[in-house]
Amino acid sequence: MEDIQLIQKLQKILNDDLHSISNALLSGGLDKIENYKYLVGQAHTIQKTLQEISNLLQPKEQKNEQGTVIDLGRARTRPNTKN
User: What is the pTM of this model?
Assistant: First the structure.
């Protein structure tokens, strides 16, 4: 199995798990607050993992090592349109 296929399969499993957790939370069938907290934690972890996978698959272009400089001195101001 190629690397990208493995990652796509992992994303599908995680998305399916997240969907199942969402259904359990929305159905209101949880009898203890501990179960609710556990599922919320699981959902948060899955979302974080999916975001990290997405970030790794689509690297963002770096401007330079020191960051991007924004010149605010040349910013145009809008005229006051309030009556």
Answer: 0.65
